[in-house]
Amino acid sequence: MTAAGATPKRLLALQLVPGRVLEVDTADGRVRTLVEDAGDAPDGVVAVDGAVYWTTMGAPDVDPGTPGEDGYDFSRRNGGIHSWSPGGPRRDLVPAGAMTTGKQLTSDGAGALYWCDREGHRISRVRTDGSSLTDLVVTPAAEGVTGECVGIAVDLVRGHLYWTQKGPAKGGRGRILRAGLEIPAGQSAEHRTDVEVLWDHLPEPIDLHLDGDTLYWTDRGAAPDGNTLNRAPLPGPGGSGTPPEVLASGFAEAIGLAIDTAAGLAYVADLGGHIREVPLPDGPAAGRAPREVAALGTPLTGLCLP
What we know:
There is one protein chain. By secondary structure, this protein is mainly beta. The chain has no helices and 26 strands. The strands form seven sheets. It has a four-stranded antiparallel sheet with strand order 3-2-1-26, with no helix packed on it. It has a four-stranded antiparallel sheet with strand order 4-5-8-9, with no helix packed on it. It has a four-stranded antiparallel sheet with strand order 10-11-12-13, with no helix packed on it. Strand 2 and strand 3 (31-35) form a beta hairpin. The chain is globular, with a radius of gyration of 18 Å.
C-alpha cells in the first residue's frame, strides 16, 4: 500500500543488464518495460515534457581474471545520452564518442540536461534537442578515481550545480561539491575558481536530489554510514555541510534516488534489484515503516518520478 492519502505513482527505473527503461507502479510493484533496448549499462534517467532521457555508461572492457567491479574498465569513450517518447523510436541525443561514462542525469526545467561523466572526469550540459553541448567542469586526470564525477543536482533559481565524487569503492573519500551553473568570465571548465567542497570524507556518495534547501543523496559505501539514504541542509556561501541525517540504511549498493515531496516519500533503487520506499520524518507519511516496492532480481541504477 502507499502512504495514507497518497496517490499511487509510477517510477521510471533503469535495469543495468540487459539495459532497459522500466516503469514501476509504486502501489503494487508491477513492472512494465518502456524501452527494451536502452543501450549498454544505462545509469541516469529523467523525464521532461513526456519524453524520457537517460545516460549509458557504454560497454566496458572486461578482465575475467579480476573479480568484482575492478574487472570492468569503462574508460572507452562509448557512453551516450538517449531519449524516447511514447509512440516514437529511441534516438541518440549526443553523437557517438562525445562522452565516456554517462552517470546521473538531471534537468533544469528550462530545456537543458546536465550529467556527470565518470571516467571522462567532467560535468556537461546539452539542450533537449541535442544542441549546445558544453562542458561545465573538468577535473584533473591526475586525480584518478577521486576526481570522477557521479551524481548531479541543479539549482536554477540560485544558479548552482551540485555533484558527487564518490572516490574509491568503500574508501571513505567521497565528496559533494558546488559551483555556479555558468563558468566564470575568463575561466574554463578545467580551471574555475568557484568550486566549493561542501562535504568531504563521505563513505561513497552516489546520486543527488535537491528539494528546496535540502540536499538528499544515496551512498553505496561501507556500513554503518554507507549503503544509506542521507540528507542535509545546504550550506551558505563559503560554508561547509553539517553531518548528514541518515534516513534509511541496509541497501544493497544504493544508487538511484527519487523524492516525492508532496507525499513525503523517498524512493531508492540498488544494485541488488530492489526499490524501497522511505517515508520522510517530517512529511505526511512520517512514522510509517519503509517498505519494498519491487524486487526485480537484477541490478537497478537510475530512478525518477515522471
